[in-house]
Every structure is written in structure tokens, then in C-alpha cells.
Specification:
eight-stranded antiparallel β-sheet
Length: about 375
């Protein structure tokens, strides 16, 4: 997939991000559970992730108040505006033709009949080598646009214009930029120093690494060869696991996830069912001898509670022993260009939410460009 970009300053965290009448808030409060370290971190920082819709545009800001506004076409093709929090942040603008695979050097962004040249580059540095002035000029044109398109040789991909202004204004308001020289849209004479500093994000430190003796190759069960691991009896005896096993898929039943988390804890994932590109699991922790079974406690910032509280089945889990991270990725479709990627890190105090990226629109945007709703340091 080819990308193009216009950039002021490259961001190290790409999710970095007056509403329209159709605006809908889809993210807000942290979980109510007093036991949730993640909820406490959100409350301490005073910044909660939020996802908004403004007609045909989306805007997302994470727990560190880094924001993204984006739109796209179902044909493939999208436009993304990113803005980190804090007085020194600069806007980034990235566009892509999605699935087309054209030479990015030939792509142009057209706004109300005016061409904006984009600087091509490799996929992981597509928005390099562009000036802030170019990004600012593009945003000014985008704010009042009636038509937006990506021009690729002899074809054109129309992108929605409706909602762009509202999305950019919302980001300015949330980040405290309105009327300052740093605003995306409503700029003024107030200095950059008037913009609030970026909120601190939580620090997460992984537990020490531990050898995976006896569990080699079992941490990515849908890709590794079945190892014939026997799930502890106390796990198989649980009512929800018996229901999970009801599909009776001979191959899937062997795809058990297992990993040593520390000297006293083993992670077990029991496969439940699968579709074309998603497999569901229930996750448990147990002692090395298979006793002391309890559901894996996976904190979340989302108001509906932790994974496992309302829906025990988690999708496509993989554990990486080198980084002590557990990742789930429910794919919106097989291409993997939409869905939610959630990462937890095993620490001395259990699993901690480390990162979440989400993309609700299947428009060809790769996961490294998705907005983050949650991020940490360490």
C-alpha cells in the first residue's frame, strides 16, 4: 500500500488527534471499577479518550490528547490529519490511494479544483520532507471545501468534504488551541505558549522475561503448529469453557494458546470458534500445576467494562514473551484495514493496558496509521 504525505514535523506516535448537527460521541468515561489501575490513570491524567463523528469525518483523541481526524472512500483512498498535544506540536497530513498501488509521486490532492502536490515516500515515512506552510495551506483549503479528491493518473477518487471543518475545530477546542498561532483551523494572535502542555500518559513496565520451557511455539496458536498441550482440568471443567468447546472443530481445538508469564503464572487460551479471519478464545491464568484458575484480568478504558466482564470471548489473541505483551485484533475484514488492536503488558501487578488503536471504517488505512485511543510510556 502506497502512502503520500504533507508534514510539518514527523510524529513519533502517529495517533498523535463546534460539532456538526450529526455529531455522535462514541467514547467517554473510563470503567467504574475501583480495582482498575487503568481507570485510575485516566482519572489522574484528567483526559479521557474520545471518538466523534462529524458527518463524513471522524475525529479521535487519546488519553494523551493526541488527535486524528480522517475520512475515506469505500473504493479505497483516505485522508488523515494528525495533531499531537502541547504547544510545540505541528500538523501532519497524510493521504493514500488505499488499494490502488499507484506511484505516490504521481498523486495529487484536489480541493475545490485546486491541486495540492504531495510528497511521496516509503510506507513507513510517507509524510517526510514537507513544510509546515504546505500543510497549513492544505488545511485552510480543506476547512471550507465543497469537493475533495485524490487524483491518480487518469482516475479520481472522491473523498468526503462534509464534516472536515467541524472535526478540525473540535480538535482545536479539545487541545486548547482556539485563537492561537498553532490552531488547525481557527488561528489567532495568542502565542503557542497559551496551549496547555500534553497530559502525561501512564508508565507501564513489563515484568522480567521468563523462559518458555515446555511452551515454545504456543503463544501464537493460529500460526504455529499445534503442540498437543493439555489444558488444565480445572479450566476444561468451567461451564463457559464447555460452551466454548461446543463447536467441536478438531483442528481449532488443538490451537491452544499457552505461555509462562512468571514463575507462578501461566496464561491459557482455549479456542472457541473461528470464521474466515477471526478466531475466538477464552483466556485464563493458572499456577504451573494447573490450579488456582481465574479469568485473565484485562483492564480497559472503555465504559462497558473489561474484556471478559460482558463477553468472555476474545479475538485472535497472541502473546509475545520477548516483550511480555498480549495482543488481540478483531479484524473488520480479511484485509486487516479495520478493527481494533489492543495491547496489554504483563507486569509485576498483572496485565496493564498498554496501547489501543481503532479504525471503524474499512477504507484501506494500514494499522500503523490508525488513531490511538490509549497509549503509555515505558
Amino acid at each position: 500500500m502506497r502512502l503520500l504525505g504533507v508534514l510539518a514535523v514527523a510524529a513519533t506516535m502517529a495517533a498523535c488527534g463546534d460539532g456538526a448537527a450529526t455529531e455522535k460521541a462514541t467514547g467517554a468515561a473510563a470503567p467504574a471499577s475501583a480495582a482498575s489501575a487503568t481507570a485510575a490513570a485516566v482519572a489522574a491524567a484528567g483526559v479521557q479518550p474520545e471518538v466523534r463523528e462529524f458527518r463524513d469525518w471522524r475525529a479521535v483523541c487519546d488519553n494523551g490528547n493526541a488527535c486524528v481526524a480522517y475520512t475515506g472512500s469505500d473504493e479505497g483512498g483516505w485522508l488523515r490529519v494528525g495533531m499531537e498535544a502541547g504547544p510545540n506540536a505541528r500538523p501532519t497530513v497524510v493521504a493514500s490511494e488505499g488499494f490502488q498501488g499507484s506511484d505516490p509521486a504521481k498523486m495529487r490532492l484536489k480541493i475545490d479544483g485546486r491541486d495540492f502536490a504531495l510528497t511521496g515516500g516509503p510506507q513507513d515515512a510517507a509524510n517526510a520532507d514537507a513544510s509546515e506552510a504546505r500543510a497549513r495551506g492544505l488545511l485552510a483549503a480543506l476547512a471550507g471545501a465543497r469537493s475533495v479528491s485524490l487524483e491518480l493518473d487518469d482516475r479520481s477518487i472522491a473523498l468526503p468534504a462534509s464534516g472536515a471543518s467541524a472535526a478540525l475545530l473540535w480538535i482545536d477546542e479539545r487541545q486548547g488551541r482556539l485563537g492561537t498561532t498553532t490552531a488547525l483551523l481557527r488561528r489567532g494572535d495568542r502565542p503557542a505558549s497559551a496551549v496547555p502542555a500534553a497530559p502525561a500518559v501512564p508508565v507501564v513496565r513489563p515484568a522480567p522475561a521468563i523462559a518458555q520451557t515446555g511452551f515454545e511455539g504456543a503463544s501464537n496458536p493460529m500460526e504455529d503448529e499445534p503442540r498437543g498441550l493439555v489444558v488444565p482440568v480445572d479450566i476444561e471443567a468451567r461451564v463457559e469453557v464447555k460452551a466454548c468447546r461446543a463447536e467441536n472443530n478438531e483442528y481449532l481445538d488443538k490451537a491452544v494458546l499457552a505461555a509462562r508469564l512468571d514463575a507462578a503464572t501461566v496464561l491459557w487460551g482455549v479456542p472457541c470458534g473461528s470464521g474466515a479471519y477471526n478466531a475466538t478464545y477464552v483466556l485464563y491464568l493458572a499456577r504451573p500445576d494447573g490450579t488456582g484458575v481465574r479469568p485473565a484480568d484485562l483492564p480497559t478504558w472503555r465504559p462497558q467494562g473489561r474484556p471478559g466482564e460482558t463477553d468472555l470471548w476474545l479475538v485472535n489473541p497472541v502473546y509475545y514473551p520477548q516483550t511480555r505483551t498480549l495482543i488481540i485484533f478483531p479484524r473488520g475484514r480479511g484485509l486487516g484495514d479495520c478493527g481494533t488492536i489492543t495491547v496489554w503488558t504483563w507486569t509485576a501487578n498483572g496485565f496493564a493496558l498498554t496501547e489501543e488503536r481503532t479504525m471503524g471504517d474499512c477504507q484501506g488505512m494500514p494499522p500503523d496509521q490508525w488513531p490511538t485511543t490509549w497509549r503509555t510510556r515505558g
